[in-house]
Amino acid sequence: MNPGRLPWYALHVRAQFEKIVAINLSRKGFDAFLPTYKIRGRRIEHRRSEIPLFPRYVFCRIQAAEVRSLLMTPGVMQIVGTGAGVKPVDEGEMAAIKLVVQSGLHYQPCLFHETGRRVRVAEGVLHNLEGIFAGKGLVIGISLLQLAVLVEIGDAIQVVPVSNTRTNTVSPSLTALKRSNLKNTPKQVVERAIGMSPHRSGELDRTIPCIPATIVFDSYSQRALAGVRGVPVPARSLLLQTKDFDIHLQIRRERVQRYILGQILSRRRERFANVRFHLLQNGEKLQATTADTRGEFNFSGVPEGALNLQVDFPHLTIIGALNV
């Protein structure tokens, strides 16, 4: 069979093994694809660092007879699928991700959602690309992984609607936001929030502003000694930010359990007692907890995969995307 016609599969790999797996698969003759993006890290003297777009995932074209060889590749844990077995990634979605990565435009990970105003790019390097409109960008998702990327297209590129209707499951909470509700947030965060909703209808009070928090530091993107004999694997550290809040997270594993320890800090001297924290997956709330007076909180029994952290203040809701 022509390798170009083989289906794409998503491989779940060990943390920080994405590049190693992609290189080894290519050496074996597989058509492997590791999408990456550039991020400016605070702890590397403001140099630009290229990291996996979808941490712990590598994509590969394979046929059934090659599964055994692929699973023997160091770092590969499993082929993603459903209860019925392995399942290929949608060919159109993979083509869209590759087009974005090769476009030369700025792009970054974002919350996955299937609902919203779908548009098609009418010109330029992304000509005919379809996605969900989000201010000056398009959201392109991978349904199987519930992961997505936001590519910035600006004001100059023309888009045309694919459909004039929205699905009935669109949440009003974020799609109804106006820039006046988010006047104190950074411009790029505002543009990403408009038209985007990871929640089901009615979960949030539309009268309360909802602010997305973005990941500005991830220790998994830094060089580490993980895996070196005698050196313990450190906890993963994340820093999420809005204009007025920092959310520090540590993701730890003890035997088969995974924990999230966190603390929220405010530049506005907020009181954190009774602030509610929710952990969500695919729009469903998995756990809820309350912060102490210092803004500290924790979750136990945390599953792998794409998650959302929701922080509920009386006057404000913050949402951040995680991939653990």
Features:
324 residues, mainly beta, Alpha-Beta Plaits, Immunoglobulin-like, 3 domains, 9-stranded mixed beta sheet, 6-stranded antiparallel beta sheet, 5 helices, 11% helix, globular
Q: What secondary-structure arrangement, pairings included, does this model have?
A:
Layout: E1 8-13, H1 18-27, E2 31-33, E3 36-40, E4 48-52, E5 57-61, H2 67-71, E6 76-79, E7 81-82, E8 85-86, H3 91-101, E9 107-110, E10 118-121, E11 130-134, E12 137-142, E13 147-152, E14 159-161, H4 172-175, H5 187-193, E15 210-218, E16 236-241, E17 245-254, E18 257-266, E19 276-281, E20 284-290, E21 296-299, E22 306-312, E23 317-323
Parallel strand pairs: 15-23
Antiparallel strand pairs: 1-5, 1-6, 2-5, 3-4, 7-8, 9-13, 10-11, 10-14, 11-12, 12-13, 15-16, 16-17, 17-18, 18-21, 19-20, 19-22, 22-23
Describe the structure.
This protein has three domains: about 5-90, 2-Layer Sandwich (Alpha-Beta Plaits), CATH 3.30.70; about 110-195, no CATH class; about 210-324, Sandwich (Immunoglobulin-like). Strand 7 (about 80) and strand 8 form a beta hairpin. It is built from five helices and 23 strands. With about 325 residues, the protein is mostly beta strands.
CATH domain fold name of the largest domain:
Immunoglobulin-like
Query: What is the tally of beta strands?
Result: 23
CATH A-level architecture of the largest domain: Sandwich
> CATH top level of the largest domain?
Mainly Beta
What distance lies between the first and last C-alpha atoms, to the nearest angstrom? 36 Å
Overall pLDDT, averaged? 77
**Roughly how much helix do the residues carry, as a percent range?**
10-25%
Arrangement of strands in the largest sheet: 20-19-22-23-15-16-17-18-21
Number of self-contained structural domains: 3
Low-confidence segments, ≥5 residues, pLDDT <50? Answer: 164-206, 223-232
Our count of helices gives: 5
Which percent band covers the strand fraction? 35-45%
Radius of gyration: 20 Å
